[in-house]
Structures are given as C-alpha cells and as structure tokens.
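Bit of a strange request maybe. I'm writing a small parser for structure token strings and I need a real example to test against, not something I typed by hand. Could someone generate the tokens for this chain?
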Amino acid sequence: MLSISRVKIQLTKDKTIDIDFSKFSSGGKKSKTDLVGVELFSGMAEGAPAVHIYRKKDTWHLGAAALVPPPAGELPLEWSETTNQPHWTLPREFQAPGAAIAVNSTMGVFGQSSPEAVIRDMMQGVGAVEPKPALTSSDPGKKKFSIAKKSQTPAPVPQNEAMETKSRPQFPDPGVPVSYNGRRFVVKPFAEDGFLLSASIPEFQALWLGRLLPEGHRPTAVSIQLAESALMASVLAQPEYVEHGGSLLTVFVKADCIYFAGYKEGMPVLWRQCPNVRGYIAMRKAIKKTLGVEEELVTEALEESLVDPRPALEPFLHPVLDQLELARAYLADRHGITSDRILLLGLPHGGNHWNSIAKEALKVDLVSADPFEGLTLDKGVEVNAPTDYLIALGSALAASEVES
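Reply from user aminoacidic:
Good idea to test on real output. This should exercise your parser:
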C-alpha cells in the first residue's frame, strides 16, 4: 500500500528530505475506524465502486456501498497532463473522515521483489545507467516489473527534479514511500524469510490522485494504493481468515487475471499471479464457446443445474489447479501451513463448480465468500453485486491498519 502520511524525496545525489505529514494534522492521530474506500479506473462503465465502513464495538459495519460518479478526466500518463486536475466530491453517504483510494494504473507495479530488483527499478532512466529487468522469485527467467505505456519513452521528469547521475539509489526504508527518478516507491518487508512486497507508481499520478479530493471537506485522502495491494488486503475481515488466525491461502479472481495470496499469522508470505491464465471473463467466453450458449445464458449455466458447465470449466481450471498445488506445497514446506480449505474471492458466479472440480483433483475445499462476510450491514444497505466492491473494501481495510 502507498501511504501519503510520510514521504522521503530524493532531491539531488546527496540531498534527501523526509516529510512527515502527520505532524501537521490537527488533533493528533487520524481516525482509522471510519473510512471510505474507492476503486478508480476499474473499467466499469456504471461508475467507481465505493464503500463506507466504520468500526463499532470491535465489529466492522458497512454503512454504504454503491457505484459512484468517477472524477472527471483520465489518469495522467505524463507530467504535462497533470494540469488537467479535477476536484472530486463524493456523495454524502461516502463523506467519511478518511478516504482510501485504490487505483488501476497501467504504469503501476506491485509484487514480490528483492532489494536488488527494487534498486534496478529505481535506477531505470537515471543518467546513462541501462535499465535491467527485475526478476520475480516465482519465475527467474522473466521480467518482474513490466510497465505498460503508450510509448516506450520513459515518462519525463520535471526539470527541477531531474537527476543526471549514475549513483546507486538507497534502498527505501521499510514502509516509507520514496520519490526517486519520477516514481513513488514503497517497500514492505514481511515474514522471517525476507519476503518483500514492492509497489511503485509515477510521481505525477500520485500527485494527481492526492489532489482529487478538495481540502477542508470530507473525506480527506489518507491512503493511495495500487488495486493489487487493496485486493490483497480485502481478506482481512473474512471469518475464514480470522478463524485460521490469519494463516490462509486465498485465490483472487479478477476479470482478467487470477492471483494467489498466502498469509501466515496475519502477514503476507506469498503473492503470485497465475501464469498464462485469464480471469472470469475468459471463463465465460470458454463456456459460451464450448456449450454454444448465448451470452445472457452463461450466468444461468453457472448458477442453475439445467446445463452442466464442467466440460468448459475443467480445461479452464486445469492450469489454475496446477499452480494452486504449487502454492500449497510452498506454504506447507516453507511455512508449515496446511491449506485444505482455500478461500475463493472475486468470482461472481460458479464457485460451487470450482469447488467440486478442486475436490476431485486436489482433495481441497475452495470456499467461496461474499466480500462483505465478517461485516455487519446497516439497515437498508443492499448490495446486488458484492464482488464489484472487493478492491474498494480492501483499500479501506488496508488503510485502517496503517498507523499515522
């Protein structure tokens, strides 16, 4: 997660400033028990998923959940576009004291990393240093950080922030966002074996996001996160997670990809995207093609017993289950975590079929869960498509864990 409460900025080769914004807040620590979480640029035409959660008597309550009108304009892709700065006002039911913003950015990167990989990523485009691809621990032969851009030219750095130097940047302090070479970095160490999560986003995007909400009005932006980071935190209130003491393997299914996340006593120990497998949109296309049904009948095939979707699901799930077994073996060998009950989040339809196939293949239970399980819904709050709010909820839960 990228927190804006404290930032370290590299001005020149030898000069660094460290700004702690919490010192300037009136009233000391900000409340982390009343938050709105919003997912921006999710691709949903209906609006931006937003949730309002608050904590009362050691229980999280859901005060509101809706698709809200997004801010005007698009996330900037270069410095010159930051002049188009909208100001965004959330509907009244989402005007909590603090706001956690999760962003889907093609220029953001998030995943397992190492100190060497982070340094290489920080040095890309600095002076005459040639950028080298960072390596992922799960696939040492492929690029770790590939930043999707419209152009192969690196985003320009403002003149007063340009650093014509070949010096090696310092590894970021744990959990402290660092501005270097036009990008905002934050690295968080976890667990006893050197597990690291690294996130970075262009500085101009962080500034644009941080200025969205008008000053002096609720809510105040207390956290900026990448969508993947918020997704990883969306499990925190789940009863299955709590009952297992925070030691759990989770499968997150998104529209275009699938992730595996492992937790040990509340600390992440695994984060990996399932290679060569798309998300539930690809699953729906496979059902449509294999069964020869129209688009509007795909959901019925997944939810009703009139049509058996297994002939389409089994080829789709085979590589997922292969990778899931590798994740289970890793958690068992490295951390002593037995994963016979695996949480399944983000899949809008067909979880029972996933579970039946997984039982036959791996002898495990895939436990489908509503994102809001573990929360108390306020009177009158109804959510028609809960999986749409998984990342928004995760952003708020993640922000509640941060000390400021």
